[in-house]
Write a structure and sequence with these properties.
The chain is mainly alpha-helical and 62 residues long. It has a domain at 3-45. It contains three helices and no strands.
Length: 62
C-alpha cells in the first residue's frame, strides 16, 4: 500500500506512524525517517488547494 492511499482512505482520521509503517512496509524493517520522507514528498507534490498533512506527537494507542 502507498502512503498517500493510506492517508486518503483514513478520511481525516489520525493515522499513527506505526500504522503507516505496518501498512506500507509490512515485511520490511524501516526507519522512522522513511515515513517523514514519504509524507514530505506528498506535501511537495500536492496542489495548493488540497489540505495539509499534520504531524503530532501523540501517545501510542494500545
Amino acid at each position: 500500500m502507498d502512503v498517500l492511499v493510506l492517508l486518503v482512505q483514513a478520511n481525516n482520521a489520525v493515522v499513527s506512524k506505526n500504522d503507516i509503517m505496518r501498512a506500507v512496509w509490512p515485511d520490511t524493517v524501516v526507519e522512522d525517517s522513511n515515513v517523514y520522507v514519504q509524507v514530505s514528498a506528498i506535501e511537495t507534490d500536492r496542489p495548493a488547494t488540497v489540505g495539509r498533512i499534520m504531524f503530532f506527537d501523540l501517545p501510542e494507542r494500545d
